[in-house]
Design a protein that fits this description.
GO terms for molecular function: glycosyltransferase activity. InterPro entries: HGPRT, Hxn_phspho_trans, PRTase-like, PRTase_dom. The protein has a single domain, classed as Rossmann fold, CATH 3.40.50.2020. A hairpin with a 2-residue loop joins strand 4 and strand 5. By secondary structure, the protein is of the alpha/beta class. The protein has a six-stranded mixed sheet. Strands 1-2-10-9 form a four-stranded antiparallel sheet. The chain starts with a strand and ends with a strand. Helix 1 packs across helix 2. The chain binds 1-O-pyrophosphono-5-O-phosphono-alpha-D-ribofuranose (PRP) and hypoxanthine. 1-O-pyrophosphono-5-O-phosphono-alpha-D-ribofuranose binds next to strand 4, strand 6 and helix 3.
């Protein structure tokens, strides 16, 4: 049974999305990906740190041949975007001609995925799509086509299931929102 509230640093968070709902959103995303990428051997590019749980649970539901690699970028301090997306670990794989699917835990302002699309797009992949567990449409600051969204949420700061508040909360199985 999930805790109804958690306290991380100076903030309290209330239960928002239980693990069962998260996993059913992920299964629906995987079903679509399995149909769309049947013979394309997609390369999933998981964006660390936040996407590690989403990537693991999504890949368990992906049944088509595929590969996965990881990039590490960061832009958030406290609960807001710095606007500067810093690449901390790049992608070593040859991606020319590959079908890429960027895996994100959340698309908020869109700064991170826009930067990633720029960084990866110049390396001539055959295609790039975005799969995100959560998206905050009210916060998007870019014209962005997110093909695979698990769930749209309002503009509330959320933690758990990989998402953190200043480093804490990533280990929670459920997602909580600030109260
Ligand atoms: O759409 P945006 O406004 O760019 O926000 C989304 C990004 O912010 C978070 O990462 P963060 O930079 O906090 O790094 P982390 O994954 O290590 O927590 C999250 O994991 C996304 O990558
Ligand atoms: O709501 C959020 N929570 C945690 N990390 C984030 N990065 C962007 N938005 C969020």
């Amino acid at each position: 049974m999930a805790a109804q509230t958690v306290t991380l640093h100076d903030k309290s968070f209330g239960i928002y999305l239980p693990e069962s709902e998260i996993l059913s959103n992920i299964k629906a995303l995987a079903d679509r990906i399995n149909q769309d990428y049947a013979s394309l051997n997609p390369l999933f590019v998981a964006v660390l740190n936040g996407s590690f749980m989403f990537a693991a649970d999504l890949l368990k539901e992906v049944t088509v041949p595929c590969e996965i690699s990881f990039m590490k970028v960061a832009s958030y301090e406290n609960t807001s975007s710095t606007g500067q997306v810093t690449e901390l670990v790049g992608l070593k794989e040859e991606i020319a001609g590959r079908h890429l699917v960027i895996l994100e835990d959340i698309v908020d302002t869109g700064n991170t995925v826009v930067k990633l699309l720029d960084m990866l797009g110049v390396r001539n992949p055959a295609s790039i799509e975005i799969a995100t567990l959560l998206q905050k449409p009210e916060c998007l600051q870019h014209k962005l086509d997110v093909k695979y969204t698990g769930r749209e949420i309002p503009n509330d700061f959320v933690v758990g299931y990989g998402l953190d508040y200043n480093g804490l909360g990533r280990n929670l199985r459920d997602i909580y929102k600030v109260i």
